[in-house]
Amino acid sequence: MTETLDIASIRKDFPILSREVNGHPLVYFDNGASSQKPQQVIDTISHYYQYENSNIHRGIHTLSQEATTAYEEARKTIQKFINAKHDHEIIFTKGTTDAINLVASSFGKKFLNEGDEIIISTMEHHSNIVPWQIICEEKGAILKVVPINDKGEFLVDEYEKLLSDKTKLVAVTHVSNTLGTINPVKEIIAKAHQKEALVLIDGAQAVPHTKVDVQELDADFYAFSGHKMFGPTGVGILYGKEGLLNSLPPYQGGGDMIKTVTFEKTTYNDLPHKFEAGTPNIVGGIALATAVDYINEIGIDKIETYEHELLNYATEQIKQIEGVRIIGEAQKKASVLSFVVDGTHPTDIGTIIDKLGIAIRTGHHCTEPLMNRFNIPGTARASFAFYNTFEEVDTFINALKRAVGMLL
């Protein structure tokens, strides 16, 4: 074990980590659902509402100009973070779900026809299943699903068999929220492009844990959420290649996405504003940039290395508990540990260890088809961030042993 980060110092930046739950120090292992926020992000939100609060883009007064500058600088910060070519390729959304729905709706309206095909995978979050089902039903298109193996790995050979001249778009997760599997997205994208199909990557679980370079991946669309990367809820990002975004019709109509409006005709605004109708989550965008700055200051490579060590340590520990079975043992994994205890329901495990101050997630994790693939009702899931410690893993393992002893 080689700690590559000053964890004690980092933990001081997260006020919530100092609280107790049920009389025990909080152990927060539910980062896959939503991460905690550093004081710097909290301060950004407070400062905005105290000193800059105003609507953006349309005001000539000082507060509006300051808020507009901060918001657009945030867009540039995020552009650099994922290495987009242009800042106007960064579309602010409500989150990953909103971003995927935007593409499904706008792309589907313009380019999807009866008999066309969209490909997803077995491990997708409902947010990357249901929008495609809706647009396929509307357009008479066909949704195809790439299978996975028993370890929870994307089967590239089966994917290649599904690709055809009818494939119009491939939508897959970069990192599975349930299994932790890191998919070979660069290869997935390259093979889709050989068939002239576009690719959307759900990066919600990837961006907080590993370096993402959208140009290097050659992704057509890439979506992620602020609240999983130490930023606020209610804000996310859709990256899209400039030419593609220009070719798509608007997702929603309203203020700021227009140039001119008459009762006869409306002319739409340029990127990125064409896809940002109405007053956005201004402070959310600004605070998301603060979260990005925080990640950059620590170093995403150091974060990835440390979290990988945490995952390996927790995996080895949990394997020693009789009756516990890990779901998702891909060769390449992010910091997610999903498991079942045979003969018990995941909710019972989660409830017992919550009494000991430990927060994990239980259920199907918005991946019901994946649960069906493994013939289980759900899993218990511990998901780690860089502010977690090896000592917390020990506390979790001891609590899990206690819970298993009570239930079996």
Entry summary:
By secondary structure, the protein is of the alpha/beta class. It has helices at 7-12, 39-52, 62-82, 96-111, 130-139, 156-162, 185-194, 214-217, 242-247, 282-298, 300-318, 346-354, 368-373, 390-407; strands at 20-21, 24-25, 27-28, 90-93, 117-121, 142-146, 167-173, 198-202, 221-225, 236-240, 258-261, 266-268, 324-326, 336-341, 358-359, 361-363, 379-383.
Topology:
Elements: H1 7-12, E1 20-21, E2 24-25, E3 27-28, H2 39-52, H3 62-82, E4 90-93, H4 96-111, E5 117-121, H5 130-139, E6 142-146, H6 156-162, E7 167-173, H7 185-194, E8 198-202, H8 214-217, E9 221-225, E10 236-240, H9 242-247, E11 258-261, E12 266-268, H10 282-298, H11 300-318, E13 324-326, E14 336-341, H12 346-354, E15 358-359, E16 361-363, H13 368-373, E17 379-383, H14 390-407
Parallel strand pairs: 3-15, 5-6, 5-7, 7-8, 8-9
Antiparallel strand pairs: 1-2, 4-10, 9-10, 11-12, 13-14, 14-17, 16-17
Helix pairs in contact: 2-10, 3-10, 4-5, 11-14, 12-14
